[in-house]
Each structure stands twice: as C-alpha cells, then as structure tokens.
Amino acid sequence: MLSVTGCSAGLSERTREMRTALDAGDPRRAIAHLNGELGVSGDGERPRRLVGEQALLLLDRATLQQSIAQLANSKRDYEAADKAIDALDLSHGASDDVGRWVFSDAAGRYVAPPHEKLLVNVLNLVNYLETGDLSGARIEARRMSVMARYLKERDPRERRPSAALGVGSLLAGFAYEKSGNDEEAHRYYADANAVEWRARSISPERTETTGSGSDDGELLVVVGWGRVPHRVAQHVPIGLALTRGSPFLAAGDRDAASRLAAQGLVTWVSYPTLAPERPLDEVPTIVVDGRAVPLDATLDVAAEVRAEWRRIEGDVLAAAITRTVARVLVGKAIEGAANTSDKKEVKAAGFLLSLFAQAAMSAADVPDTRSWETLPARIGIARVQLPPGEHRVLLRARGTEREGDVRATPGGWRAISLFALR
C-alpha cells in the first residue's frame, strides 16, 4: 500500500513561523521553531531518523546556525542533512511515481535540484574555512566535485553547469591554495572561471592573489543576504491551468480535462509556485580599518532557483491537472458501476463511495512546497590583503552587522562570514 503520511500539510506551512521570525531579524526564534518541528529540545540535537521533510528542516537549521556563528552545530546539521537527502534521491522508486501522479507531488521522495545539492557542500566549506580547518574544507570541496560529476553524468545534454559550482570552485581553490597545493588550487580556479556565475555588476577579474611574494596576510570575506523565493501552494481555475499546462499534457489527458471542465465537473487545480521575491536593492558593506572593500564576485542564488523552477513548472502543472481529472474519473467509474444495479440502496452506496473516494484523493493532493528555504538569495566573496597586525572588520547587510578584530600574520589568512537571511 502506498503511504501518503506527512502530506496533510505542505512544508511551507510548517515553516511559516520560521520565515516570520527571519523577516523580523530574529534567527534564534526561527531556530527554536525548527527545533519544535524536528522534535528536539536543543540546537545541537538531531532526530534519530531523518525521514520525510525533516532532512530539509535540518538543512534550514544548518543555515540559520551558520548565520549566528554556531559553526560546530551548523557543520553537523549540514553533514547529516546532506547524507539524508542523497539517500532519499537514490532510493527513488516506482511507488514515488505512482504517488506523484495519483495523490500529490509531495507523496514522492524529495529530489534536491542541482544548486541545492552543490550549495550544501559550498556553505559547509565556508564553515570549515571560518574555523581554520583546511582539511575539512578540502573534504567538502571534494564532495562538491563528486556531486558535480554525478549531476553532469546524470543529465549531460539538458543541463548547463549550476552557477553554484562557480562560487564553490572559487572557495575550493582558496582552500587548496592555503594548503600549499597550487596545482589543485589552479584547477579549481579554472573551474570557477569556466562557469557563468558572477553578477554583471561585479568585476570579472580573478580574485585569487597567489604568488604575490609579500608578507601580507589575507582575509576572505563571504556574505550571504536575502532568501531565495520559497514554494507556495496556489489554486487556479481549470481554464487557466489548461492554458498554461496544455503543452505538457498528453493529448488524451488534455481532451479529458477539457471535457470535464466543460461539464463543470472540474473547476480548480492546485499546484505549487514560487513566492514573490523580496527586493534586494542594498549591497552589503565590508569595511576594513575604516576603508570600504567591494565584493569581488557575487552568485545570484535566486536566479538559480527561478531557472530550475521554469525547467520543471510545466511538468508539475501537468501532473496536478492529471490528478484532478483522475479523481473525477475514479468517482464516475465507481458511481457508474453501482448504477448497473437495480437496487436503489446499491446506487446510493455507489454515489456516496464516489464522493468519499474523490474527497480522500483531494485531501491527499497537497501541492509540493518542499525546498531549502533559508538559502541566501545572494552570496558574495571578497579577498583582502592585510599588512601584519590587528585590523578592525565590519560587515553589514540587511540590518545585520558583524564587527570584530582580525589579526593578520605574514603569509597567514583568516576567513569571516555574515549571513543576513531577511
């Protein structure tokens, strides 16, 4: 029997309070809400088994913990969520397809889009760099490379490389450069330059400064700001749904939907879409010793989300229309079978059973609003040469600040981040 347990409420409804807290600039309250949804009592605790939507909730918490500099907790959350989401992807089977086309897209296992798969490793790589752990950073870089190869082999013709690979390769190159492995560093830097990912307003020049020969230290700054658009449920008239979804429907399904719509048996279709984006007019501020420092490069993560949604939206809408039609046809089939009987009570029972079947399938049809909601809408990087000594660093983005002293040593390096998820 196919189970649809857990589909009674979309994920975006479960995370509504988290988003409200983030919009108010209160990431700690957002984490507390996720702890409740995960069924744990503390920021460092994780469920014994990550099933269903819990892996995504843990991924959201990982980014939030990173935003308040709980880096050890963030590392563990990223790694546990990464393994759980990979396991869900690889265990996809026929029952998931049945669930998607009969009950709901949310009935199937979650398959993370390419940018999410890569950014798990990229953001955790930032954690390791900020804690000065080059070994851990190199491990995340290799995991990212393995995932990038897997994605390319899975769909070599239809997908361009995710832009997330660009920023990830730049950070990986930094990790190998500071580890003294120039060959690997240059390979990653070449990968970063081969991917179209920098915002047009940012200088296209390479940001690495290997081989300078100076006694300066170096500061790596990573800033994430805003949040990507999350998925929300929407309900549209069948006529509008058919107009949008017809190119993606089989001829038989399209004709059946049109006939039922004309008879008034199908009126509305439910399916997910992307929520409106919040404006991101302000550019983050990086100030070192009172001097403003520009970002060297910026990844538009929200653009990745929108591009992926455009790629799958037609199929998602087609599946929603097909499920809507299937519910009516199942009900009509049950009622028709009962009407062949001469007994009034059988006909009445058939009518009630028809209504019950349609109602049960409608209740199970929850638009799939699963996604990694706390991904920053933009990720920017700056590399700053610093003479030996103490330096005052101020990072500011969307009403969030981080300020402190950084000590530069000859040939040394430090990394610092700010994630303002408003």
> Which structural class do the helices and strands define?
alpha+beta
Give the full name of the CATH homologous superfamily. Tetratricopeptide repeat domain
The rough form would be described as: elongated
CATH architecture: Alpha Horseshoe
* Poorly predicted ranges: 1-8, 90-104, 199-213, 333-339, 345-364
Which sequence of strands runs across the widest sheet? 6-7-1-10
Mean pLDDT: 81
> How many separate structural domains?
1
List its traits.
alpha+beta; Serine Threonine Protein Phosphatase 5, Tetratricopeptide repeat; four-stranded mixed beta sheet; 422 residues; 16% strand
Describe the structure.
This protein has 422 residues and is an alpha+beta fold. The protein has a single domain (11-420), classed as Serine Threonine Protein Phosphatase 5, Tetratricopeptide repeat. Helices cover 50% and strands 16% of the residues. The protein is built from 14 helices and 10 strands. It has helices at 11-14, 16-23, 27-38, 54-67, 71-90, 94-102, 114-130, 134-154, 164-178, 182-194, 238-245, 251-262, 301-339, 344-364; strands at 217-225, 231-237, 268-274, 285-288, 291-292, 297-300, 378-386, 389-397, 400-408, 413-420. Strand 8 (389-397) and strand 9 (400-408) form a beta hairpin. Helix 7 runs parallel beside helix 9 (164-178), helix 11 (238-245) packs across helix 13 and helix 12 (251-262) packs across helix 13. It is elongated.
